[in-house]
Design a protein that fits this description.
Layout: E1 5-14, H1 15-29, E2 33-38, H2 45-59, E3 63-69, H3 78-87, E4 90-94, E5 115-118, E6 122-126, E7 146-151, H4 154-172, E8 194-201, H5 209-220, E9 224-229, H6 236-247, E10 251-257, H7 263-268, H8 273-278, E11 282-286, E12 294-298, E13 302-306, H9 312-316, E14 320-326, H10 328-345, E15 346-349, H11 351-355, H12 359-379
Parallel strand pairs: 2-3, 3-4, 9-10, 10-11
Antiparallel strand pairs: 1-7, 1-8, 2-5, 5-6, 6-7, 8-14, 9-12, 11-15, 12-13, 13-14
Helix pairs in contact: 1-2, 2-3, 5-6
Length: 392
């Protein structure tokens, strides 16, 4: 299990409307270094504002490093990349897309983290990509998501995580002159009272780190579990932990994406609805806009905000980063926001609704789940976690 550090100040940021002004202010105030990692960097209004802030920082002598995922940013404009490099921003793509038709399973191992570290003084972690809230499929704004602003000893964990990924990417792409990242101060002073841990998932020592933190929190729950997740298709162990919690009297509530963005996971997740509802788990679908959140609250004292979905791609393949917080005030603030979203912008899913779904809808869900299992099998991942209902 991960070590929780005290003395942190962690601020909840809702949507890009709160996240980007905070991020841009810190980049503008940077003196020594800015490090930004993102899965998607869209050259829309918000993306261009962030790019401009990075370039201005680099021109005034700040060491600026930008890591984008090679798949998520495969269409990143060459002219913008050139402008960033010319201004002094060190730009790298994690696992760049060399062939869009490659079937190599390593192609699925993406960098899905969304983190920033400025001057070893303040950091950001969450699920928000560099993209405008109003840049959504079918123009249904704004996108619903969360991030956190972090000050305190937790920044030591964040620095170690970004340095490790930066070094790995530099070595893999022969960017040896870029290996340097500024050193942290010898001591990181406390800025608050919150206990927190940064939990990262990779394909080496931390393959199950985020999932294990979730399972430990669920197993220890005594009153309530609230999970909001855009792409939700947990494996067998995760499903059983939730069902076991409901069986022992814990209120389990799951808020999911109600609009179709990625049809495969959207429909595959619906194969779980009937068993969850029969097991006493409450399900809501967020319908006001597109939901991108990946957060949870347990017993109003433990919470997590980060980039990891609860699906095979996040839990078994991608590099992810979540902040886990042990603090009643923070947990209650996040829970209250989730409650408002469920009451005002979501619809409850009833067992009677699921039982009355058409044969076509049930067949679509079943075929989608089978296809996910097939893809995971071809890739060589998750054969035991993603069993059929009959296997359970």
């Amino acid at each position: 299990m991960n070590r929780y550090l005290g003395g942190n100040r962690i601020q909840l940021l809702r949507n890009g409307g709160e996240y980007f002004p905070a991020l841009l202010n810190e980049i503008a105030a940077a003196i020594h270094s800015v490090h930004l990692e993102t899965y998607i960097f869209e050259p829309d209004r918000t993306g261009l504002e962030v790019a401009d802030a990075l370039m201005q920082a680099a021109r005034r002598g700040v060491l600026v490093s930008l890591v984008m995922d090679g798949f998520g940013c495969r269409s990143f404009p060459e002219d913008l990349q050139h402008a960033l490099l010319q201004s002094g921003v060190r730009v790298m793509f994690f696992r760049p897309e060399l062939s869009r038709f490659s079937l190599h399973r390593h192609r699925l191992r993406r960098m899905h983290r969304k983190v920033a570290l400025i001057d070893a003084r303040v950091g950001f972690v969450g699920g928000i990509n560099v993209i405008d809230d109003f840049n959504t499929p079918n123009q249904v704004p704004p996108r619903y998501d969360y991030a956190v602003r972090v000050e305190g000893p937790l920044l030591g964990m964040l620095y170690a995580a970004v340095r490790h990924l930066w070094w790995q990417t530099c070595w893999a792409q022969f960017k040896y002159p870029w290996l340097t990242l500024p050193r942290l101060p010898l001591t990181l002073v406390g800025h608050g009272t919150m206990q927190a841990a940064l939990v990262v998932r990779d394909n080496l020592r931390n393959r199950r780190a985020i999932e294990q933190e979730y399972l430990a929190a669920i197993a220890a729950a005594r009153q309530e579990i609230v999970i909001a997740c855009a792409y939700f298709l947990p494996g067998y162990a995760f499903r059983q932990h939730l069902l076991d919690a409901a069986k022992r009297g814990v209120r389990v509530v799951i808020l999911l994406q109600g609009r179709v963005e990625y049809w495969l996971l959207h429909h595959a997740s619906r194969t779980l609805y009937r068993r969850f509802l029969e097991g006493g788990i409450e399900i809501f679908e967020y319908t006001a806009s597109f939901m991108h959140a990946k957060v949870a609250v347990v017993d109003q004292h433990w919470a997590t905000v980060g980039s990891s979905n609860i699906d095979p791609f996040s839990l078994l393949l991608a590099r992810e980063a979540n902040v886990m917080v042990r603090d009643a005030r923070f947990a209650c603030e996040l829970r209250a926001d989730l409650q408002r979203s469920m009451q005002e912008r979501s619809v409850p899913i009833l067992l009677s609704d699921v039982r009355e779904r058409t044969l076509a809808a049930r067949l679509m869900a079943w075929l989608s789940y089978v296809l996910v299992r097939l893809l995971m099998g071809i890739a060589g991942y998750g054969k035991r976690e993603y069993r059929s209902a009959a296997d359970e």
